[in-house]
């Protein structure tokens, strides 16, 4: 199999050298393309052997050769005559002998090569014996590598080109039938020497074979002694922890594993003293490994812990000790899942005794967590530099705090919210009594010890019932007196924002809190101002009834702060005041709506005048932000009004509709403005539903002209809400209105088709996504009118054209539409019905509608089949596969024989050399058999497997798909 001389592989080495150099991107791209083609070529077999055999190639080149050989064996073994496979096996064994002492990456790739060959070489029955005898007694690590790889590769056997039956049979031969022998071999090796017993490769091998060998067999064998021993050897500690965790995972079914757990538990607990030793010696790796091991034992045995709390209390205390001693907070995260799982179990009534037994543990856990929440003390003179300038570490700490907050919530479930809050309150009191008198506006001593319990209160906020009547009454008056330190003020405001639900039930506490939050808007820290805006939103939302009499004062406050806030905070404050306006009596809704929004409209128009210049992007974004604020008022102010009366909110919307229309007409090229305007119109429909009927003619006209002029998909998104709200059968909607809405929809569809005629799909991904999401609803509500309509056929063609896209979102929308569309060619479409008298669970489709769909499939089905199959083989994102194969499945359900012909034709048009000999014929034979047996759904699996296999073997042809290249969509309407 070897090519003669270095000249046979010189181009490959040159391309590899280019890839590893500082060459220009174009050169690297050419080299990458060359190497990809090389890896697919039949010549790669001999070239890889030459590279692996020569002394002229670098280790990197040999690793590439071994990796390429692995791919050839996995995907291209049919390129070799069957009778040459023993020679291939022998050459790989020779390479393994050469590389048995390393480098390990090459050795591992060669082991994978041999395993993948063994899987497919089903006539090779004595795999372990041949490998063992060839590599000999001196091949220890190499044999262990092979044994480790074997179960990993076999269990991933779906990528191997074998039938399900052959793969199942081969899996049994290689794994199940060899499990006892492997256990014996590994045991013998572990007893051969002291170094062998703690060899990390041995432990990795045990972990891998625990897929096949029951944990009970390992635990009751001398191998378990080796695993435990390896935990005391530094070089093997990490591998031993992985192995022990794999064993523990196999004992999750505690009822079946009780005897094994009884053997493991004392050995595990004997390691507990090492937690303290590792912590005191600052041995981070050992401490993290021990924490992980104890935590995983707790996770897997949590049912046993709940049943037998006395017997397993030692394990729970060991995990608690890991939490307490983790001063660097590097290991504690691995315990979080255990605490959650334990909480889930012991809060069940049947495990109440365990809950009582572990109450003190969770109480100590609260103390530990709050202590870990503390910011570090600054290491230098700069009091604000808490992480030595390490921003990544600071961000990690912030995220970590929220995870610890979740653990505090678990504690609330176990030992009650009041007790957990009481601990935070006690720490706040303690700080005030110790340091409160020393605090000034410029210096707050040991502020970390006050900020942590404040954060814990914020974290536990959602667990607190509005009826809590012990701790909050005492702690909230303390919070509003917190010293003026940035992080303290921020945390205090955020904490108050979490208790607005409680405040709504205790109005006597509202005013001091509101004053404290509003004062935060004047703070010099932007973070505190943002916190104040967020908290104000919660106060407005939850305490709106208490604030109705303050609506005028709030208006003055709103006007005074609005222009000083960043956009996100503007939205939060706006939501807060909008909620208060929404709580006004009906007769005050319109004047207050107008009072709050007219100044925003004036600001918006002023910035719109400034934004006419082509360069003033900031002014355009400001216009979009003001439109968003108006939308928030529309979202929140939804008064209940009898259908016979005028809606005061709609009255105001009618006033501002011309302004919004003018904005849309004047900024047809500004996507942010148009998206916000369309969102505003959409929420007019969603908030006021049929009450918006007086606005409908103008709104429809604006949506139609806006889409035609701007070609922005947001107009279709807004159209969708109109279509759904005024569809056939909707309550309080006349048939004539629904018919007018359908005509409006057709107008939008016509505009879309004209745009698709002018531009390729790659220029319109967002518009395509919005259009086909609109089409999905149109099918639900108007299928009776749409499917027989002349416009339906070009819509179907446009959907097929859109399948050339490679972005997931528009493709998903298009495929969902196609699945729904094709379902109308069956008896039961993917639809819903407004017919309340119907007793059938699913809509029955009329023969006329089915015929319309079948006619269009007959016209375009071959092209659709081509686009779906080529998409699955070349271009579709992986997450689109289920929907794409779903389209094929429905096609087969409607026209099985015809679609089989189209599939066969498509495979025949694939680029030469990309389909294995006989592969297409075998696929079509299997498809035909499944169709004859009436097992249409199994055809979907066959096609998925074929396209997956094809895609793995072939890169998308850079010179195009030849006869399968898509044609441009054309529309003459």
From TrEMBL:
Which controlled-vocabulary keywords does the entry list? tRNA processing
Q: What is this protein called?
A: Importin N-terminal domain-containing protein
| Record's function text | tRNA nucleus export receptor which facilitates tRNA translocation across the nuclear pore complex. Involved in pre-tRNA splicing, probably by affecting the interaction of pre-tRNA with splicing endonuclease.
Q: Does the keyword Transcription regulation belong to this entry?
A: no
In terms of superkingdom, the source organism counts as Eukaryota
The source organism is Letharia lupina
* SMART domains cross-referenced by the UniProt entry: IBN_N
Q: What PANTHER family does its record include?
A: MRNA TRANSPORT REGULATOR MTR10, TRANSPORTIN 3 AND IMPORTIN 13
Report if keyword Membrane is assigned. no
Q: Name one GO molecular function term.
A: small GTPase binding
Gene Ontology biological process terms in this record: protein import into nucleus; tRNA processing
One annotated Gene Ontology cellular component of this protein: nucleus
Q: Which Pfam families match?
A: IBN_N, TPR_TNPO3_IPO13_2nd, TPR_TNPO3_IPO13_3rd, TPR_TNPO3_IPO13_4th, Xpo1
Can you give the residue ranges of the Importin N-terminal domain?
31-98
Its taxonomic path starts at: Eukaryota, Fungi, Dikarya, Ascomycota, Pezizomycotina
List the InterPro entries hit by this protein, alphabetically: ARM-like (IPR011989), ARM-type_fold (IPR016024), Exportin-1/Importin-b-like (IPR013598), Importin-beta_N (IPR001494), Importin_beta-like_NTR (IPR051345), TPR_TNPO3_IPO13_2nd (IPR057941), TPR_TNPO3_IPO13_3rd (IPR057942), TPR_TNPO3_IPO13_4th (IPR058537)
């Amino acid at each position: 199999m070897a090519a003669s001389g270095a000249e046979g592989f010189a181009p490959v080495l040159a391309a590899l050298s280019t890839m590893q150099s500082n060459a220009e991107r174009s050169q690297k791209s050419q080299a990458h393309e060359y190497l990809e083609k090389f890896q697919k070529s039949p010549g790669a077999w001999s070239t890889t052997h030459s590279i692996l055999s020569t002394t002229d190639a670098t280790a990197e080149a040999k690793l590439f050769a071994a990796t390429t050989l692995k791919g050839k064996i996995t995907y291209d073994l049919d390129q070799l005559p069957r009778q040459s496979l023993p020679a291939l096996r022998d050459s790989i064994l020779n390479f393994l002998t050469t590389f048995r002492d390393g480098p390990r990456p090459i050795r591992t790739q060669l082991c994978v090569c041999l395993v993948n060959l063994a899987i497919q070489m089903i006539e090779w029955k004595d795999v372990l014996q041949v490998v063992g005898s060839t590599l000999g007694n001196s091949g220890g690590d190499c044999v262990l590598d092979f044994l480790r790889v074997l179960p990993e590769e076999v269990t991933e056997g779906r990528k191997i080109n074998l039938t399900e039956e052959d793969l199942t049979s081969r899996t049994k031969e290689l794994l199940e039938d060899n499990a006892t022998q492997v256990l014996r071999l590994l045991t013998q090796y572990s007893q051969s020497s002291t170094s062998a017993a703690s060899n990390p490769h041995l432990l990795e091998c045990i972990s891998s074979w625990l897929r096949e060998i029951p944990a009970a067999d390992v635990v009751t064998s001398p191998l378990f002694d080796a695993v435990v021993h390896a935990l005391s050897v530094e070089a093997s500690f990490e591998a031993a922890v992985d192995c022990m965790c794999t064993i523990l995972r196999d004992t999750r079914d505690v009822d079946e594993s009780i005897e094994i757990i009884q053997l493991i538990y004392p050995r595990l607990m004997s390691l507990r003293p090492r937690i303290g030793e590792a912590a005191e010696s600052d041995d981070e790796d050992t401490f993290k490994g021990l924490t992980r091991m104890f935590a995983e034992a707790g996770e897997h045995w949590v049912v046993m812990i709940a049943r037998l709390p006395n017997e397993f209390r030692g394990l729970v205390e060991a995990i608690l000790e890991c939490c307490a001693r983790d001063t660097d907070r590097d290991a504690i995260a691995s315990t979080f899942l255990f605490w959650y799982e334990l909480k889930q179990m012991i809060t069940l009534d049947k495990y109440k005794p365990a809950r009582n037994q572990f109450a003190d543990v969770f109480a100590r856990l609260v103390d530990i967590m709050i202590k870990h929440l503390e910011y570090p003390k600054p290491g230098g003179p700069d009091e604000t530099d808490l992480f030595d300038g390490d921003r990544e570490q600071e961000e990690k700490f912030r995220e970590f705090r929220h995870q610890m907050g979740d653990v505090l919530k678990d504690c609330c479930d176990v030992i009650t919210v009041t007790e957990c809050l009481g601990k935070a309150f006690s720490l706040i009191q303690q700080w005030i009594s110790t340091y409160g008198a020393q605090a000034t506006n410029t210096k707050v001593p040991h502020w970390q010890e006050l900020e942590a319990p404040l954060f814990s209160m914020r974290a536990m906020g959602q667990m607190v019932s509005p009826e809590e009547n012990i701790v909050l009454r005492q702690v909230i008056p303390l919070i509003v007196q917190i010293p003026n330190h940035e992080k303290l003020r921020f945390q205090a405001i955020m904490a108050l924002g979490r208790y607005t639900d409680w405040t709504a039930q205790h109005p006597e506490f509202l005013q001091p809190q509101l004053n404290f939050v509003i004062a935060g808007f004047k703070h010099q820290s932007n973070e505190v101002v943002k916190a104040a805006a967020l908290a104000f939103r919660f106060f407005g939302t939850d305490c709106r009834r208490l604030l109705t009499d303050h609506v005028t004062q709030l208006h003055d406050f709103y006007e005074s702060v609005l222009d000083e806030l960043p956009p996100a905070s503007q939205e939060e404050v706006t939501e807060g005041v909008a909620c208060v306006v929404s709580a006004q009596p009906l007769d005050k809704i319109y004047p207050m709506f107008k009072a709050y929004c007219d100044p925003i409209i004036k600001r918006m128009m002023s910035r719109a005048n400034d934004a006419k210049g082509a360069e003033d992007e900031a002014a355009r974004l400001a216009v979009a932000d003001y439109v968003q604020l108006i939308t928030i008022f529309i979202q929140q102010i939804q008064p209940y009004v009898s259908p016979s009366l005028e809606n005061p909110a709609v009255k105001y919307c009618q006033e501002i509709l011309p302004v919004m229309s003018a904005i849309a007409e004047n900024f047809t090229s500004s996507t942010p403005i148009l998206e916000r305007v369309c969102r505003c119109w959409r929420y007019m429909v969603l908030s006021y539903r049929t009450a918006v009927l007086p606005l409908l003619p103008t709104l429809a006209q604006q949506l139609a002209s806006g889409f035609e002029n701007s070609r922005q998909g947001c107009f279709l998104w807004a159209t969708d809400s109109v279509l759904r709200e005024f569809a056939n059968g909707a309550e309080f909607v006349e048939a004539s209105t629904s018919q007018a809405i359908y005509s409006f929809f057709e107008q939008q569809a016509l505009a879309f088709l004209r745009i698709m005629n002018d531009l390729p799909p790659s220029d319109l991904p967002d518009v395509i996504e919005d259009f086909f999401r609109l089409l999905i609803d149109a099918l639900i509500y108007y299928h009776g009118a749409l499917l027989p309509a002349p416009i339906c056929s070009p819509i179907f063609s446009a959907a097929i054209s859109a399948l050339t896209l490679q972005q997931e979102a528009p493709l998903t929308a298009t495929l969902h539409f196609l699945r729904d569309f094709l379902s109308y060619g069956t008896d039961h479409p993917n639809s819903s019905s407004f017919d309340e008298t119907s007793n059938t669970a699913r809509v029955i489709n009329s023969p006329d509608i089915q015929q319309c769909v079948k006619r269009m499939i007959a016209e375009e089905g071959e092209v659709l089949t081509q686009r779906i199959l080529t998409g699955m083989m070349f271009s579709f994102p992986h997450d689109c596969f289920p929907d794409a194969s779903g389209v094929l499945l429905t096609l087969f359900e409607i026209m099985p024989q015809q679609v089989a012909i189209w599939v066969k034709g498509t495979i025949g048009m694939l680029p030469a050399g990309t389909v294995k000999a006989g592969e297409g014929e075998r696929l079509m034979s299997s498809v035909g058999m499944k169709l004859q047996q009436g097992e249409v759904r199994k055809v979907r699996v066959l096609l998925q497997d074929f396209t997956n296999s094809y895609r793995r073997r072939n890169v998308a042809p850079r010179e195009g798909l030849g006869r399968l290249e898509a044609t441009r969509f054309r529309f003459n309407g």
